[in-house]
Automatic annotation (TrEMBL):
The keyword Nuclease does not apply. It is an enzyme of class 1 (oxidoreductase). SUPFAM superfamilies: LDH C-terminal domain-like (SSF56327), NAD(P)-binding Rossmann-fold domains (SSF51735). This is malate dehydrogenase. Residues 30-172 form the Lactate/malate dehydrogenase N-terminal domain. CDD domains: MDH_glyoxysomal_mitochondrial. It holds the Pfam family Ldh_1_C. GO terms for cellular component: cytosol. The keyword Transcription does not apply. Homodimer. Keywords: NAD, Oxidoreductase, Tricarboxylic acid cycle. GO terms for molecular function: L-malate dehydrogenase (NAD+) activity. One of its GO terms (biological process) is tricarboxylic acid cycle.
């Protein structure tokens, strides 16, 4: 029509700024570390999810390329990408976000434990969560960066220091342990991995990962001669990937899947009830109660348990510890010891700087 040939009036600088601000203020989901091995496939899954309207990508490198690439996908998500730009990039990436997923930081190489990553990743998580506290203090924060056992307490301390800590909104992503557990259970007893739900509780590294194989749903018996090896594989499954990648990092694709699964559960929980996912949350003194106190002489403040999710985040934590078998209770004692050390290390990283 003739109207189509009429050039629209050129927007004034003020109007461009207003539109830009409006765009920033409606971005609900951010990925920090979006150019990495996890960040890229995770961003892809979020970009194609019908639940994501807008996706904000942030990294210290390569986000313009990753963002341009994803923005050509004909899904509804609007993708924007940011580099640091002396701090302004993080502010623009985070302002208005509802969900912030953080896979930023270095991954393991063969021979390294997750704790070996602390030196570098602790500072990265501190700085990024400081951005969350300043620019989107009400967002759900999903920490993937390792060591999760310590980086989540770091995030909590940063949020507390800014008076915006709300335990229902901070999550350590342990979904990969749960994904692995059902896969490895199916390897032992047969069937399709998706049919098994295995509560995996505690933390996210080695012996702090405690699969409760007596509570598999639907009820499944693991032959007793296979139990030790299966538990060990769930606890140290990440090492299989680190070894196979031979110096090129740790799990990225399975982690992107697991991280997306958790983010999607939170998005769904905004409108649906009854969504339960295991995650590492602030639960002072709850899971082990007196048993933990007896074992390690103190409380555990963070613990992974199945958590019911809702519009405000974590709604209700279930505590499967009382129903654990004696075999699992012995695993839990080792978990408490390691976890307590990891939590104190994370907390003190911030409190000692104050
Ligand atoms: P990667 O090295 O491929 O990617 C990390 C990305 O973070 C890079 O693009 C890097 O530029 C970026 N980055 C570094 N400093 C940053 C900063 N200050 N701000 C924003 N971005 C920054 O590593 P990968 O394989 O993606 O792993 C990321 C993290 O996830 C590691 O700490 C790894 O141990 C952890 N991980 C966690 C799992 C879990 O189950 N929670 C499973 C597997 C890995």
């Amino acid at each position: 029509s003739p109207a189509c040939r009429v050039a629209p009036p050129r927007p004034s600088v003020e109007r461009e700024k207003a539109v830009e601000e409006l765009t920033i203020h409606t971005i609900p989901t951010a990925v920090l570390g979006a150019s990495g091995g996890i960040g890229q496939p995770l961003s892809l899954l979020l970009a194609i999810s019908p639940l994501v309207d807008e996706l904000s990508l942030y990294d210290v490198v390569n986000t313009p390329g990753v963002g341009a690439d994803l923005s050509h996908i004909n899904s509804k998500a609007k993708v924007t990408a940011f580099l640091p730009e002396d701090g302004a990039g993080l502010e623009r990436a985070l302002t208005g976000c509802d969900i912030v997923v953080i896979p930023a930081g270095i991954p393991r190489k063969p021979g390294m434990t997750r704790d070996d990553l602390f030196k570098i990743n602790a500072g990265i998580v501190r700085d990024l969560v400081t951005g969350v506290a300043k620019f989107c203090p009400k967002a759900f924060v999903l920490i993937i960066s390792n060591p999760v056992n310590s980086t989540v307490p770091i995030a909590a301390e940063v949020l507390k220091a800014h008076n915006v800590f709300e335990p229902t909104r901070l999550f350590g992503v342990t979904s990969l342990d749960v994904v692995r557990a059902s896969t490895f259970v199916a390897d032992v007893v047969g069937g399709c991995p998706t049919q098994y739900t295995v509560p995996v509780i505690g933390g996210h590294s080695g012996e702090t990962i405690v699969p409760l194989l007596s509570q598999i749903s639907p009820k499944t018996d693991i032959p007793s001669d296979k139990l030790d090896a299966l538990v060990n594989r769930i606890q140290f499954g990440g090492d299989e990937v680190v070894k196979a990648k031979d110096g090129l990092g740790s799990a990225t694709l399975s982690m992107a899947y697991a991280g997306f699964k958790f983010a999607e559960a939170l998005l769904k929980a905004k409108t649906q009830t009854g969504i339960v996912e295991p995650t590492y949350v602030y639960l002072p003194g709850v899971p082990g109660g007196e048993e933990v106190k007896k074992a390690i002489g103190g409380d555990i403040d963070f613990f992974a348990v199945p958590v019911e999710l809702g519009p405000s985040g974590a709604v209700k934590a279930t505590n499967p510890v009382p129903n654990a078998t004696d075999y699992e209770k012995a695993l839990l004692v080792k978990c408490y010891e390691g976890l307590k050390t990891n939590i104190v290390k994370g907390t003190e990283f911030i409190t000692n700087q104050a």
